[in-house]
Amino acid sequence: xxxxxxxxxxxxxxxxxxxxxxxxxxxxxxxxxxxxxxxxxxxxxxxxxxxxxxxxxxxxxxxxxxxxxxxxxxxxxxxxxxxxxxxxxxxxxxxxxxxxxxxxxxxxxxxxxxxxxxxxxxxxxxxxxxxxxxxxxxxxxxxxxxxxxxxxx
Length: 153
Description:
The protein is of the alpha+beta class. Helix content is 25%, strand content 20%. The protein is built from six helices and eight strands; from the N terminus they run βααββαββαββαβα. Strand 4 and strand 5 form a beta hairpin.
């Protein structure tokens, strides 16, 4: 299964990944109009700073997902290929998934009273957050590909 991996030593905190995510999930598909959209959008990937280092928070698509187990409506599910996906139509906004996610990767879309998370932009060959990262701090691939990249760094 492919997912998004993060290389912290490459990240300079530019937040291009967040902007790419917002643009992709907006109705306008344009970053300038995204700010005016209602409900207010939240990026599914978030960059935070800890000391002198940046860290990206994104869904890890865990094989034994606490968010899936905690979801009382079945809005959080595993796809046939193993990714964790969120069905907003089933979501009742209890936010149990947010409380149990050990990575803090599920966002509160409070204006619509729903949870939101990375969907890996399945309609794209490479997720826009990965494609737009100027420092190549994000990798979209398998855990084996990630390990090879880290070993080569």
